[in-house]
Amino acid sequence: MESKRQTSTEDHTEAPGPTRLTLYAGLSTCGDDINASRSKSPAPLTPTGPAPTAGDDRDPSLPRFRLADVRKHDANSGSPWVTSGDKVYDITDWVAAHPGGDVILQAAGHSIDPYWAIFTIHKAPHVLQVLESYCIGFVDKADLDDSGKPLAEGGIEDPFATDPKRDERLTVLTQKPCNAEPEAAYLAREFATPNELFYVRNHMWVPVVDVEEAPKHELTVELPDGEVRAYTLEELRTRFKIHHVPAVLQCSGNRRSDMTKSVGPTNGLQWGAGAISNAVWEGVLLKDVLRDAGLRTGDDVGATEDDPPSDSLHVQLTGMEAYAASIPLPVAMDARGDVLLAFGMNGKPLPRDHGYPLRAVVPGYVAARSVKWLSRIVVSDEESASQWQRRDYKLFGPNEGGKPNWDRYPAIQEMPITSAITSVLVGKDVKSCTDKSARAAAGVRDLKDWQDKNWVDSPKGTPVEVAGYAYSGGGREIVRVDVSVDGGRTWDQAELLDSPSRNYDDAEETQKKYVVARGRRDWAWKRWQYKGVLLDKSLDQSLQREQGHEILVKAVDSAYNTQPEHHDGIYNVRGNLATAWHRVRVQTNDDKITIQGCGFPDKPPRK
Ligand SMILES: Nc1nc2c(c(=O)[nH]1)N[C@H]1C(S)=C(S)[C@@H](COP(=O)(O)O)O[C@H]1N2
Ligand SMILES: [Mo]
């Protein structure tokens, strides 16, 4: 078994996305073809490089280029160049051959080095070799400083310099690109996660769109027949019916660190339980826009030879910074699917981190499909060619290892069921608990005193209050949440707080605040709460006090799907869909309470 769980040393981390993309792209076709590329004739804009000057002892057979000339070879030039160190590269063929080459285009006309420094895997020697095959010459000596480096370029050196500031209550996994999750204690305090606490999962930098420019932000829609229609954001807002849809976004890597800890190493960002959040999204339906653009196939149109069955078609969604993914067309066209082109989040414009000014929201599906900074839609008979569609978000068997056959399984789309504990209050904290003030307990508590005063009628033990979230994909409603506070020996049902399917007018007075809007299916999470007793050792022989009390949660959805007991059986090298029962350990030794488990920080949470 051990060997099956070993991951390869090859890095498949999600964090520095674009790196791997170019790495993969470069290796897939250029690896054996270095000489062929080198002999390519120069791009049309290529100026004749001046002859090497005195004091320049670099390879005299290669031409020299002024930086001003390199600048002309920007992303729009048709023949993009980059520099790295004092060398000049023509990346035209590289970009053309690889859809994901868009990422490298960000550096066109400039030095690629700042990007490489950020996406550290780029420094892998074999990638350098691939770039080497596109070398066309050197930066002219006149543009080099004394140490032989190109003179500093104005401005754009750090593509992350313009990223927004993030809330201090987010735990930052990586800064550039930003990946951050709210501490567990903040996660499920409210039905709608406040925008500033919503988890952030960026593969690259945050594109800059000025407020004045936003209404003119353009979305192009390309249909299978090649027809292209462009919409401004202003046009989307004013010409189509606006919808409000409460929906969870959850990364396929949510709780990956839990799988790692309980089974073995996984590649990717080691998320706690907070790569999930819930918001009320405002936007127009993707299906309305596709129809307006002239799409004739769909859920309600019979397939003919000229009108192919729509499930062979895909809606490719591309963001401004080059991230891309796709969903099957029937998902987009589903009359009850609520797939949005969203511009609002919890009553405010989308924050920059979450896709300003326009993003896709695909409720019930893995958040990787909810493309942010959306600028292009293509309806195609192919899935998106991006690595985020074809590689990263797939689920392999426990034995399939670090170099799986990527094409063997479909991309993750609809999400499975999951649940997690986000708050545990023990002893005297229980009394003062409301859903607003809930926080993870930490520090010294006077338990005995509390029990004497407040828990006289209870069995001998320590009161505990547990809260968290439960969510299932595909619009399936959460119908039950089971909690155990004694390691699974006995179970009880938690109270479900949010009731999106219940009519507000029928709800009991005390429950009214939990009755919330609902989409056409159940796309939102349900928060839950449970009060119980951690039994004293004298009453619970099975308790091993040294290890503390184990609190467990698992949920059930309307299709009676439930979660696996352990991560062992669903272990996969990418650490995707870590949905096993969530386990938290509570120790009350010497009246000091410690809580351990995925999502619970070692230090007390910030207030
Ligand atoms: N353009 C773009 N869209 C994107 C991403 C990205 O990096 N760029 N990340 C995807 C992934 S993997 C996730 S989990 C969600 C995260 O959305 P959020 O940052 O709003 O929580 O956005 C998705 N859409
Ligand atoms: Mo994700």
TrEMBL record:
Pfam family, one: Mo-co_dimer
TM spans (from-to): none
InterPro entries: Cyt_B5-like_heme/steroid-bd, Cyt_B5-like_heme/steroid_sf, Ig_E-set, MoCF_OxRdtse_dimer, Mopterin_OxRdtase_euk, OxRdtase_Mopterin-bd_dom, OxRdtase_Mopterin-bd_sf
Cofactors, names only: Mo-molybdopterin; heme b
Oxidoreductase listed as a keyword: yes
GO molecular function, one term: molybdopterin cofactor binding
Origin: domain of life: Eukaryota
Pathway in which the depicted protein is active: Energy metabolism; sulfur metabolism
Keywords of this entry: Heme, Iron, Metal-binding, Mitochondrion, Molybdenum, Oxidoreductase
Residues in Cytochrome b5 heme-binding domain copies: 62-140
EC number: 1.7.1.3, 1.8.3.1
Name this protein carries in UniProt: Nitrate reductase [NADPH]
Source organism per UniProt: Ophiostoma piceae (strain UAMH 11346)
